[in-house]
Amino acid sequence: MSTQPASLNELKQIKLSSRDCAHIDYHVNYAERQLKLKGLLDKNPEDLSDEDRQYNATARIMVWSLRIGCANPNRYAKK
Amino acid sequence: MKKLALLLLMVAGAAQADCYMRVATNLTKQSIFGQPTDVQRLVVPGPHGYKCVIRYRLNVNLDWQTVEGVGVARTEEQACASAADVKRGALLQEVSPQTVRADQQMVCSDLPDIRVRPVRINDVVWESEVDVHTIPAERPYFVYKNTQCRMFVERNTRDRNFFTYQGIICRQNTTKNSKWQVVDKY
Q1: Per residue in B137-175, pLDDT tens?
Q2: pLDDT (0 to 100) of residue A53
Q3: B137 and B171 share one domain
Q4: Is B114 contained in some domain?
Q5: Which end of chain B is more exposed for a tag (fewer CB within 10 A), N or C?
Q6: Res. B3 pLDDT band, cuts 50 70 90
Q7: Taking CB atoms and an 8 Å cutoff, what residues of chain B touch A67?
Q8: pLDDT of B24-63, one tens digit each?
Q9: Are B155 and B163 in contact (CB under 8 A)?
Q10: Among all residues of chain A, which has the CA nearest to that of B136?
Q11: Number of domains present in the structure of chain B
Q12: Does A41 touch chain B (CB under 8 A)?
């Protein structure tokens, strides 16, 4: 397990879809581990530098896309 | 002299309470997002039964508005059911001296004044203290850990820069009018 956080570009390259719901814990843990390594866990965005805010938002969007999308599969379905 | 003292008392009371103009309006279903929320109710007995005043927040065209409904009936339940009818609600608009007209009705109240404000992770808030999401697909409520939640956006300025944050609020418990907790913001 790496002790260096992934770069912002590496995070941005991760593409998630409903297929990843089968491994939601793995992906959420991965994103939260990166935030922890960066010292960003549970930080409010207004307390962060622009660079950290962007990193934080990218990782948290990953986490919440999975949490919301996987538990509510019809949410983003085309009507 | 008595009249002057009464007037002074009324002015003092109004200075402490928040005052609004009551504006009768027809709210269309299309302009409303979600259901009435952050409901506060006041019931007083009257000569014909009960008078129920219900004040709630309604999201109209993506703006939170305070709406007040009044119902009078023989029972408390009937009075409050009538007061809760959105079609009969009146918008409460903040008073500004320039817009006060003699034919308008002003209401003052000690009920908590709820308005959109910046929030932080773990804050406990009324639902209408945070805006609904700007992206329609992100507006519906969702379930997370068996709790009703929704996304919100917060517009903020820092060092003359404009930021839009988003976040998640979830109900504190399963009661209908519970407060909400900010579980994340980014």
Answers
A1: 999 999 999 999 999 999 988 778 889 999 999 999 988
A2: 96
A3: yes
A4: no
A5: N
A6: low
A7: 144
A8: 766 777 678 888 999 999 999 988 899 999 999 999 888 9
A9: yes
A10: A76
A11: 2
A12: no
Contact between B55 and B67 (Cβ < 8 Å): yes
**Are residues B165 and A45 in contact, defined by beta-carbon separation less than 8 angstroms?**
yes
Give yes or no for A61 touching B (CB within 8 A). yes
What angle (nearest 5°) sits at the alpha carbon of residue B26, between those of residues B22 and B27? 100
CA-CA-CA-CA torsion sign (A18, A20, A23, A26): negative
Q: A25, A48, A60, A64: which to substitute to probe chain B, counting the most B Cβ within 10 Å?
A: A64
What residue of A is the nearest CA neighbor of B183? A42
Domain that holds residue B158: 124-185
Q: Residue B55 — φ and ψ, nearest 5°?
A: -115, 130
CA separation for the pair B144, B141 (Å, rounded): 10
Q: Which amino acid is at A41?
A: L
C-alpha–C-alpha distance, residues B11 and B55, integer Å: 23
**Contact call for A68 and B142, based on CB within 8 A:** yes
Residue B69 CB contacts under 8 Å (≥ 6 apart), including other chains: B53, B54, B55, B56, B82, B83, B84, B85, B86, B88, B89, B90
Domain boundary among B109, B142, B167: B109
Please tell me whether residues B73 and B161 are part of one structural domain: no
Which string of DSSP letters, residue by residue, matches B37-80?
Answer: EEEEEEEEEETTEEEEEEEEEEEETTEEEEEEEEEEESSHHHHH
End-of-domain residue from the set B109, B136, B167 = B109
- Asked if the C-beta of A64 comes within 8 angstroms of chain B's C-beta atoms, the answer is yes
* pTM higher than 0.95: no
